């Protein structure tokens, strides 16, 4: 595969600058390769993920936590890791693909979806233990970078060059949708988030946010004032106000206190690109990024400080697990599960 691609403005960039802001120094995407009609039997999409002794050290690119507190992380070679305590991990029993997975979402303790390269969409109904393959596009090197479901039926998936898909049957079938026209139509789409009011936001290239108040039927294009790509966001209620904090290239952070309609820049104190952000408690946020950067905010994202670093590996995703006191932060990286403050991680 080619090691470079063009962004929507014609500039050549490495996949590590495009793929959710991250990171893949090993795998790149070509913008000019179409889908093949029939894939060879050894195509990664057609081969089940293998159980690996060092799966905990696999490049992990996305993570989530179910309502019951189970952490699910997905990544390279179709690896899906599960943990019920944030310390001991095991691989999912059955994953039908070795394709790189880039996104994961759950609507309850049992039902979830994962997505990634080759247009792959997977589904689980047993809390991540076993997965089925719902969708694949052999050789179409336009990966899904984020997947989200409102309920058991209605879902969205987005990726490079303005690719946006919708499903009304739980991910079995998908239809292409257009978010906008003009210059914003082919921007790379990195992350889907929803606010407490039901507003759907898609965090995108060139400081763009796409906003829908009707579940994705109609979209507004929001110019946040940022020029660089935004790679992740977190939504929460700040004293009853629908608030969003988004992070991206060169340490840029922006904040909205009106449900994503308008945005203000927030100083991060770093030029390291930020790849994910998570809410740990009512007013405590953590953002992670390149060089193991971890930033903390204790006032709902109005101010951030560098509290400690999680090694040198680029942080690719953040998750949390509830405890008796404060929630425990779990960072993931290209080197797998990250140890923070001496806490060790192990594979069962």
Structure description:
This protein is mainly beta and 348 residues long. It is built from no helices and 30 strands. The chain has strands at residues 4-6, 12-14, 60-65, 71-75, 80-83, 88-91, 101-106, 112-116, 121-124, 132-135, 144-149, 155-159, 164-167, 175-176, 189-194, 200-204, 208-212, 220-223, 230-238, 241-248, 253-256, 264-266, 274-279, 285-289, 293-297, 305-309, 315-321, 328-333, 336-337, 346-347. The strands form 8 sheets. The chain has a 5-stranded mixed sheet, with no helix packed on it. Strands 7-8-9-10 form a 4-stranded antiparallel sheet, with no helix packed on it. A 4-stranded antiparallel sheet has the order 11-12-13-14, with no helix packed on it. It is globular. It starts with a strand and ends with a strand. 50% of the residues are buried. This is Glycosyl hydrolase. Keywords: Hydrolase, Photosynthesis, Photosystem II. One of its GO terms (cellular component) is photosystem II.
Task: Describe the secondary-structure layout.
Blueprint: E1 4-6, E2 12-14, E3 60-65, E4 71-75, E5 80-83, E6 88-91, E7 101-106, E8 112-116, E9 121-124, E10 132-135, E11 144-149, E12 155-159, E13 164-167, E14 175-176, E15 189-194, E16 200-204, E17 208-212, E18 220-223, E19 230-238, E20 241-248, E21 253-256, E22 264-266, E23 274-279, E24 285-289, E25 293-297, E26 305-309, E27 315-321, E28 328-333, E29 336-337, E30 346-347
Parallel strand pairs: 6-30
Antiparallel strand pairs: 1-2, 3-4, 4-5, 5-6, 7-8, 8-9, 9-10, 11-12, 12-13, 13-14, 15-16, 16-17, 17-18, 19-20, 20-21, 21-22, 23-24, 24-25, 25-26, 27-28, 28-29
Domain Photosynthesis system II assembly factor Ycf48/Hcf136-like: 92-240
Protein name: Glycosyl hydrolase
GO molecular function: hydrolase activity
